Structure formats: C-alpha cells, structure tokens
Amino acid sequence: MSQLAELQELEREHVIGTYVRAPVEFVRGSGTRLWDADGNEYLDFLAGISVVQIGHSHPRWVEAVQEQAARLAHVGNLFYTEPSMRLARRLSESSLGGKVFFANSGAEAVECALKLARKHRRGGDIVVLEKGFHGRTYGALSATPQETKQAPFAPLVPGFKVATASTLRELVGARTAAVLIEPIQGESGILPVPDELLQEARAACDATGALLVFDEIQCGMGRTGTMWAFEQVGVRPDVITVAKGLGGGLPIGACVTSPEYADVLEAGDHGSTFAGGPIPCAGAHAVLDVIGEPGFLEAVRAKGDRLLRGLDQLSGGRARGRGLMTAFATGEGAPALVRRALLEERLVLNATGPDTVRLLPPLTVTEEEIDEALARLGRLVGSDA
Length: 385
Known about the structure:
By secondary structure, the protein is an alpha/beta fold. It has a domain at 60-291: Type I PLP-dependent aspartate aminotransferase-like (Major domain) (Aspartate Aminotransferase, domain 2, 3-Layer(aba) Sandwich). 37% of the residues lie in helices and 18% in strands. It is built from 13 helices and 17 strands. The protein has a seven-stranded mixed β-sheet, with helices on both faces. A four-stranded mixed β-sheet has the order 1-2-3-15. Strands 13-14-17-16 form a four-stranded antiparallel β-sheet, covered by helices on one side. Helix 3 (59-71) runs antiparallel to helix 10 and helix 11 (296-315) packs parallel to helix 13. The radius of gyration is 21 Å and the shape is globular.
C-alpha cells in the first residue's frame, strides 16, 4: 500500500468526513513551491487559502517561530507575554487605533465582533450582506446567509438580517447593533463589494449608532495591495476582523476596534485558552516584518495587476479581483478544471463554486512564477475559455 493510500484509509476509518481532499500528500514547501511525497514540484496559487502570506517556510518566519518555541510555548492569558502585547500594538497602530482581542481563527474573531456589537447595543440585530461568508461556528454561521451551509444546523442564532445592495439602508435602524461586511467576498468567488455600498453602510451606521464591522479575514494583511482592504475604499469601519495570513501558517485571529469601542468588552466578557500564544504571535511578527518592508505592498499591487491581466486574457474577460486576490469565471466546470490543474499541471488552485476558480498566491510570488502559472493554466483552459 502506498503512503497516500494508507493516509486515505486512515481518513476513512478515523477522520470525520467534512472535507473533500485532493489525492495529493504534500510534505514540503518553500516560497511559492510545494512538493508531494513522490518528489513532484507544484506551484502554489492558493497559499492555504490566503494563509501562507509570505510563502512557505520563509526564513524569517521559521527563525522567529523556532526561537520562540525553544524559549516559551504557552502560559495562557492570565499572565503577560511580550509577543502578544507588542503584536496588539502593531495591529492597532496599522489599522483602527483601538484595542485588540486575540483569537485562534477567523470565525473566532467574528464571534468576538458579534459579542462586542451585541454588548454595544443590547439585543440589537446584525445586518449582513447576501453571499457573505463569516465562518462556521454558530454565531459566524448565523451571519453567513448561505442556505447549504446553514440549513443542516438550524435553528441558528436569532437576530440576523440579510441585506441586498438595494435593501441595506432600510434594514439599518435604531435596533441595529452592527453591519457586518466583507469588503471583498472571498468564499463566494472574489466579489468586491462596490465602494458606494460600503459608503452607504457607513452612512447608515453613523445615522443610527450601529457599528460597522469589516471582515478582513481573507482580504486583509496586504492581500489586496494595501495593509487593509478598507484603505482602498474610502470607508473606515469601527471594527475589523483578521486571521488567515496573520500567522503565516499558525492559527491566530484578531478582532481590532477603533478607540471609540475599545472598552465595550470588559474583564470576563470573553476569553480563549490558546489565543494570543507566544508562538503564533512570534510568527505574526515575522509576517508583519516582511509585509512592512519598503516597496512590498507596491509590488503586490503590480504583481496583482499582472496576474489579473493574464487571467482576463485566458478567461475571455471574466476575471476579477484586487491585488493578489483574484478569480475568474469558467461556466460550470471549475471543480474539474482545478483538479486537472493539480494533477496534470501541478498548479494548486481551488474552486469557490461550480463556475469560479480562485487564485490566492503568496504575496512573495515572483513575476516569473505568475507567468509560469498562467502558462500552465493556459494549457488547460485555452485562450477561448
């Protein structure tokens, strides 16, 4: 029995079947490259779903994590550790200027934002946007208006209202605790929310006293070519959630407030045993160090333009995205195309539905690797896709 076959057997016997895995076992990564158990090399244009932001095993990240692991792994949040406190300052100063609650994931960061909003306006409703995705824990799932994800687990947390572009303003009122929006809807297929709608949400929140919460779990951390996606849309939220690329591969998330809402949550209101641990915080510092290098984000924007132009040409004008957060429409064959890309061209992508292929390469991807990925993809879809 091969190693892969053995792993598949172990999964069948011992792992709850919530994932549909591709038949590849990855054993090593470096930069934008992955290697499977048979030694085959792949181009990774998914980055663990926007997680490996500075590439696989970046030397600065490895050094920071190894050094911290050798010194102190965990003590919990009943005591101080330097990596956590200093990371909170960096996140605050780079974004909204308020305070930070650390979590272990994006869904947990959203749960914190929901609790903060509900404490800010007791019993208030949360307005979310159609096609949004905010996570799979109960509060985050209740904020995710997708029938296939919600229906098996009803009844959900009450008090969520789903807005469209035309109904958002009328749904925000005196009983609204918050409006929760992804500036770019990631899991629904890289759908940038129009700037005008984000501005309308800001105006509605200002008029009613509701919080405006931006879910930047996928689109933050430099992914769109600025540190935070909200910097490009002319709208400043009251709260942001961040995760995925923050830890460079380690589980960490954060809920960051503006100064006005920094003290809504008080001692005992929320907590997490593992959140903000020294090792993931050390990894996050390394990620921020790399993203903060002079010219780094400008290069992300330039490389994103290069990738988007190439995808637009390959797909016949059906590409979309911002920075290195991109997708293109395929008709109904996206999952099959992604599988062929993996197995035939050794290019790692994913499908966000039957008709959309998503590309989220590490931000450290080179122009040459972008051209190589486009060439591999072009052999599959052709110029008339």
